[in-house]
TrEMBL record:
One of its GO terms (molecular function) is RNA endonuclease activity. NCBIfam families: 18S_RNA_Rcl1p (TIGR03400). As part of the small subunit (SSU) processome, it plays a role in 40S-ribosomal-subunit biogenesis in the early pre-rRNA processing steps at sites A0, A1 and A2 that are required for proper maturation of the 18S RNA. Activates BMS1 by promoting GDP/GTP exchange. Does not have cyclase activity. The lineage of its organism: Eukaryota, Metazoa, Chordata, Craniata, Vertebrata. Part of the small subunit (SSU) processome, composed of more than 70 proteins and the RNA chaperone small nucleolar RNA (snoRNA) U3. Interacts with BMS1. PROSITE patterns: RTC (PS01287). The gene is RCL1. It holds the Pfam family RTC. This is RNA 3'-terminal phosphate cyclase-like protein. Residues 10-341 form the RNA 3'-terminal phosphate cyclase domain. GO terms for cellular component: nucleolus; small-subunit processome.
Amino acid sequence: MATQANSLSYAGCNFLRQRLVLSTLSGRPVKIRKIRARDDNPGLRDFEASFIRLLDKITNGSRIEINQTGTTLYYQPGLLYGGSVEHDCSVLRGIGYYLESLLCLAPFMKHPLKIVLRGVTNDQVDPSVDVLKATALPLLKQFGIDGESFELKIVRRGMPPGGGGEVVFSCPVRKVLKPIQLTDPGKIKRIRGMAYSVRVSPQMANRIVDSARSILNKFIPDIYIYTDHMKGVNSGKSPGFGLSLVAETTSGTFLSAELASNPQGQGAAVLPEDLGRNCAWLLLEEIYRGGCVDSTNQSLALLLMTLGQQDVSKVLLGPLSPYTIEFLRHLKSFFQIMFKIETKPCGEELKGGDKVLMTCVGIGFSNLSKTLK
């Protein structure tokens, strides 16, 4: 039985998901104090409480203690169980907030995970389900997590503030992960995208596509942006529109960018033409940053490298995001693993910004909860 002695202690509400996910995988309890202690509205927010409830659903034997004001959390992880789960996410954050963590945990369950998540599918804060489907799933396949039961499906779209979206995610379990060598980002060969509109005129999506293409066509001819106009019950509870773009390279790397309109009743109205152009510029910015994994999935790639077999894994990344830098510190605390970090200047060829080559030896993490067949 784990005692509070070998538990890790943190203060503040930052990086709550990172700490709880790594705690669950490593089996080390965490105690988090001073969660918004000086705030007018102290303690855990609804979306964080919803995330803790989700962890409770997919694990077996977790012990969670929260004090009366919600400013202190003690989490002692149980075994990852999986199976069929349904969860209503908080509409304050997107489904991507919950899905990012599930992508880290899903391969290590006892039973293959099949989960239905309801809430906001596309917002301005979290990665949308479209982007995670286009970038995170191919990344997991590089580590050997693949199969017919591996899919992410958008049943209904839901925009903030009302939500009403629904997503089905299913993932097979793996005993061990393959080490990876992703050092050649390749050249961009095609760009795909999805312009969606719900509870507004379907013409909005076409206007977004035209403005995005007007910029991207200068660089590459192979561009195809699908339009998705969900009707009736499948369109959620709030109006909105947006665009997600994904660039694929010759070596199978996916780089993404996305934008969504302002939620109903918040901020100024956004023109679809402006949104399309801005999203295209964001994609070009992401391509400039480059690397073999886009900035949304840096921490997922580093986690799966850490948990791989006791073999060398390498990945070339663009500039590390602040979230990834903090994630590396947490990996050191929970798994005592450190990466070798080499900077690769862009040099004479001018292939975008400076890159970082991350190298580590996996800890040989084995999925002990996986049932023997």
